[in-house]
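Provenance

Sequences were taken from public entries as deposited. Structures were produced by running a predictor on each sequence independently, with no templates supplied. The record for Putative transferase from Lupinus albus is shown for reference.
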Amino acid sequence: MVDEIRSFFNPKGGCYSRGIRKAIGVPEFDEFLRREAFLDEETKQRLLEEAINEMKVNTCKLAMKQLGRIRRLRNVKRWKIHRLDATSVFRKNGQEANEAWKKLVPEPSAMIVANFLYNSNTTTTTTNGFSGLRISPSQSVIARATC
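Predicted structure for Putative transferase:
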């Protein structure tokens, strides 16, 4: 993770308010990355731990903010919110992971989008257990093409 963040670090300074440099982790590691070459191991380790903790706090804040937005859309705007859980994909490897991803993310997503686009309230359970939209063959082609 540190090496990935290091690849976005600009030692000459720069703005952390736009683009990839705004991403969680980059601003939090600024002090560590600027000073690491000049520090003893103990101080370097302390700064690294501080950066990691700050990143965790900011990640939590972002998650809470996003949850607030989702709840607002659901409760105030009355949007129907769909949850896709791809956790099991990350427990698999290779082709098995690819198949699980396809089954858990793009297929249900296409059904949700098709439901939205065609404003249908008719649902059925698909072969993968997803309760989705019953769509015509021509709409099915559109749904498959989106993924």
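The chain has two domains: 2-75, 88-145.
Residues 88-145 form one domain.
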